[in-house]
Design a protein that fits this description.
Layout lengths: L2 H6 L2 H11 L3 H8 L7 H21 L11 H8 L6 H24 L9 H5 L5 H10 E3 L2 E2 L5 H25 L13 E3 L2 E7 L8 E6 L5 E6 L3 H30 L2 H27 L5 E3 L4 E6 L12 E5 L5 E5 L6 H16 L11 E3 L3 E5 L12 H15 L4 E5 L8 H17 L3 E6 L2 H9 L3 E9 L4 E8 L7 H8 L3 H9 L3 H83 L6 H22 L21 E4 L4 E5 L8 E6 L2 E6 L3 E3 L8 H11 L3 H13 L3 E3 L5 H17 L4 E5 L6 H12 L3 E6 L9 E6 L1
Parallel strand pairs: 7-11, 10-14, 10-15, 12-13, 13-14, 22-23
Antiparallel strand pairs: 1-2, 3-4, 4-6, 5-6, 8-9, 15-16, 17-18, 17-21, 18-19, 19-20, 23-25, 24-25
Helix pairs in contact: 2-3, 2-11, 3-11, 4-11, 5-11, 6-8, 6-11, 8-10, 9-10, 14-15, 18-19, 22-23
Length: about 800
């Protein structure tokens, strides 16, 4: 790409923004040299890498490659067997730590199943943890080696500390002792890395030793006392030994690192590339950008594109397409309306996309691949070269015409401006026609009406304009393709206060054809606004209808689901109810089949109550709402004992045998069964309509309400035996017979009964005793005594 176009389209500012996103110096250098590519495969690869890094950053946050530094020189030193300094070894350690962080980042932020384009970079990183740990153990900083780096270094430094302590002890005793009067100050100082004391010049003979320095006035001499000369010499020797040992340690670490020069070089290369890729992704996140689609047909379709150098909160997105239905787009409209921004957006997006950068536009925006992008934008006049604005623009235009081909993208701002309008318009039409005939994708802005007519009358050439609101005198910055722009000079002047007389006079100076053309443009603009408004309303209605349709479909789906569930549950419940009813009916039939003259009223009443409770339970389950009674409710004063009634829920007729209590409950005699029901469940029965009812009622009233029960009880007392023989029966048969017998005996008011079960294994006796424990009306029981049957008989006494 030519550097002039990169500069005019402000590609360098995008590179500056990209460089700021890199976190390492090598990564920043790679960002600075980024240039657009022309190979579609390489462009797609770069875009894929940016997209994958974008996904990783969204999932796991920012990736940091700050430990990546240029170690190329260190690697060369290692390759020839040289030793590195502590600082150089620390840089290698920092790079290995950065590789370890990157490796961890790749494992934690990427699903195991996904293999993206960056995984190969992360997989080839070698953290070399043992080497990094050894360097960090031995080297604390660029100026300090750890005492534990080696046993020898630790011993030397311990000796240094002991020697220092001896020197300080000797000098402290001298400073605070007999030499105090000879000293300028009671301090210990250093000269030439040897310990000295400050002695007054007149007492130098009193302090034997070596003179190392004197003060500026000559009044103080810095003397190394003789008594510590040997100690200072030892300290000097230890310092030399320490330096030698440190050099040996660094050499050993360098030798260890030299075994991995290839891995270190590869880590440096991979980390730099990764930092560069993640910088592109970070820029895309910052711009709210997306990956563009590319084609070799030089087709451009930008959806809601925003110029990346403008404030993303205030910039107006634009839609631009070029290369499908037309290859030349002429943009017209007033100044400061956004024409130049539209041109720069197309050019800059092309450069960014071909550099592997995402563009701030909606998904599925498309860009063509161009070998060159040419731009003539801005004031190119040069005083030094004696070039006017027109001459500078024309020089640049000639260069573009000479170099552009069908694989180029050409952008012109105010083509033909700066000279006579008639000649300028003619030149602009000729230049654009020349490019159009060669099939070169071109965008140009102009104020010339002749170019609008050229676009309207030439195939594969399209007009566009930047919308301007005459009412507010402000541009909307919306690019409208297919509509030529209008200068709006008269309308703007009128809004600003220019008199109508002057405006009408001005209109007389333009040709009738030009005025008619401008009126046509005005009518087109009005029609466009009306159609756009109606389209927006239609779109709004469609969206509302779609929303309502979706809600209705969701509601219908919920209803269908609920219907299926309710039917399924109802069928299941019905099946259970039928099964329960069958079980209850079978049990009731068996009970009544067992009944005979010896059957107690209590047993029948218990069986009837159980059936009624079962029926009531099922009715309650089946009732989803409270059922209103279909018959007239009776009041307590409307019913009395002896009245013939019908129990609605049971479908049985009977005679009232008691008055209702406070809750409305009373007893009804239905044949031989006496039931407790509520007054709400009763209706009076017409006695004349039922033969024999009156006689029954009369007998009931004359004999008393309990005569039937008393008669039954008396009959059973006369025939009931006080002994039951269970010999030869199983436990279940014996307990069933015993249950019936005990009820009859208790109702017959027998004081006790004799139960013969035999001795045998004792199983029947134990079952009888367990059963008697559960009978509430059995007072006590015991085995028969001698003469009563002994252990083969149990005597049960009633309460």
């Amino acid at each position: 790409m030519n550097e002039k176009a990169l500069r005019i389209l402000e590609y360098d500012k995008i590179i500056d923004m990209l460089t700021e996103k890199a976190t390492s110096a090598p990564g920043k250098e790679l960002c600075k040299i980024l240039k657009p590519m022309t190979d579609l495969a390489k462009i797609e690869e770069a875009q894929k890498q940016t997209a994958d890094a974008f996904s990783r950053l969204v999932k796991g946050g920012r990736a940091n490659f700050s430990g990546n530094t240029d170690i190329s020189y260190s690697i060369k030193v290692l390759e020839i067997g040289g030793a590195l300094s502590a600082a150089e070894l620390l840089k290698i350690s920092a790079l290995l730590a950065c590789a370890a962080r990157a490796k961890t980042f790749s494992r934690t932020e990427l699903d195991d199943e996904i293999e993206d384009s960056l995984q190969k970079f992360f997989a080839n990183l070698e953290p070399l943890t043992p080497l990094q740990s050894e360097i960090n153990r031995c080297i604390l900083s660029e100026e300090e080696i750890a005492d534990d780096a080696s046993a020898t270094l630790k011993h030397i430094r311990r000796s240094v500390n002991l020697t220092n302590e001896k020197i300080h002890s000797q000098l402290t005793s001298m400073v605070n002792g007999s030499y105090r009067t000879y000293l300028q100050d009671a301090v210990i100082t250093m000269r030439d890395n040897r310990y000295c004391i400050p002695v007054k010049s007149e007492y130098k003979a009193n302090v034997p030793g070596m003179i190392h320095d004197q003060s500026s006035t000559g009044s103080t001499l810095f003397i190394e006392p003789t008594v510590i000369v040997n100690l200072n010499n030892q300290l000097k020797e230890l310092a030399i030994q320490e330096k030698t040992e440190i050099e040996r340690i660094l050499a050993q670490l360098s030798a260890n690192a030299s075994e991995f020069t290839a891995e270190l070089a590869n880590n440096y290369r991979l980390l730099t590339i990764l930092d560069f890729i993640f910088a592109r992704a970070a820029l895309a996140i910052d711009m709210n950008a997306s990956r563009p689609l590319f084609n070799n047909n030089r087709y451009i379709n930008i959806r809601k594109g925003r110029h990346p150098l403008l404030n993303k909160k205030s910039v107006v997105p634009i839609d631009i397409h070029l290369g499908a239905d037309f290859d030349l787009l002429i943009v017209t409209g007033p100044n400061t309306g956004g024409k130049t921004v539209s041109l720069k957006t197309v050019g800059l997006f092309t450069l960014m996309g071909q550099s592997g950068l995402h563009i701030p536009a909606l998904d599925r925006s498309e860009l063509g691949v161009f070998t060159e992008v040419y731009a003539d934008i801005g004031d190119e006049q040069s005083i030094e070269q004696s070039l006017s604005t027109f001459s500078a623009h024309m020089t640049n235009t000639i260069s573009i015409l000479n170099n552009a081909d069908e694989h180029s993208l050409c952008i012109f701002d105010e083509l033909g401006a700066g000279t006579d309008p008639t000649e300028g318009a003619a030149l602009a039409i000729a230049i654009l026609k020349h490019l159009h005939d060669r099939g070169i994708r071109t965008m140009a802005t102009t104020h010339y009406s002749e170019l609008k007519v050229f676009a309207l009358t030439t195939p594969y050439v399209e007009n566009a304009c930047c919308e301007f609101d005459v009412e507010t005198l402000r541009p909307t910055y919306r690019l409208l393709i297919g509509i030529p722009g209008k200068s709006n000079a008269f309308a703007i002047s009128s809004k600003l206060g220019l008199s109508d007389e002057i405006i009408e006079s001005a209109k007389e100076h333009i040709s009738e054809e030009a005025e008619t053309f401008e009126d046509l443009l005005a009518n087109l603009e009005d029609s466009r606004r009306t159609i756009e408004k109606e389209q927006n309303e239609i779109s709004s209605y469609k969206a509302e209808i779609a929303s309502l349709k979706q809600k209705l479909e969701q509601k219908q789906e919920r209803l269908d689901t609920q219907k299926d569930r309710i039917l399924r549950e109802a069928n299941e419940e019905a099946r259970k109810i039928l099964q329960d009813a069958k079980d209850v009916a079978d049990e009731t039939i068996r009970n009544f089949q067992k009944a005979n003259n010896q059957t107690s009223i209590k047993d029948l009443e218990k069986a009837r109550t159980k059936v009624r409770d079962k029926i009531s339970e099922k009715n309650n389950k089946l009732s989803t709402t409270e059922q209103k009674p279909t018959h007239k409710l009776l009041k307590p004063n409307q019913i009395k004992p002896g009245d013939m009634v019908k129990v609605v829920t049971m479908g049985l007729k009977g005679t009232v045998s008691s008055k209702p209590d406070a809750k409305g409950d009373l007893f009804v005699q239905c044949g031989i069964i006496r039931s407790k029901v509520n007054i709400k469940d009763l209706v009076l029965v017409n006695e004349e309509a039922m033969p024999g009812i009156a006689n029954y009622k009369k007998n009931w009233e004359s004999s008393g309400s309990a005569s039937g029960a008393s008669h039954i009880s008396s009959s059973k007392t006369a025939t009931l035996s006080t002994e039951i023989n269970l010999l030869g029966r199983t436990v279940d048969e014996a307990l069933a017979e015993l249950d019936k017998y005990l009820d009859d005996a208790y109702l017959s008011h027998a004081p006790s009964v004799r139960i013969v079960h035999g001795k045998g294994t004792g199983a029947l006796r134990q079952a009888v005793h367990q059963y008697l424990k559960r009978i509430s009306y059995v007072k006590s029981y015991h085995l028969g005594e001698y003469g009563e049957g002994d252990a083969g008989v149990t005597i049960a006494e009633f309460k």
